[in-house]
Amino acid sequence: REAGWGPPYSDLGSGTWIGAEFIKEAILRLNDGVDDEITEVVRHFQNSEEPLQQTLNAFDIPSTASLARDCIGLAANGNETCQWIVNEAAGHIATYIARVFKRMQYEGDELTIVCVGGIYNSPYWREILAQMTQSLLPCKLVWVRPEESAARTGIDYLKRVVG
Question: In the chain, where do the E strands start and end?
Answer without folding.
Answer: 110-114, 140-144
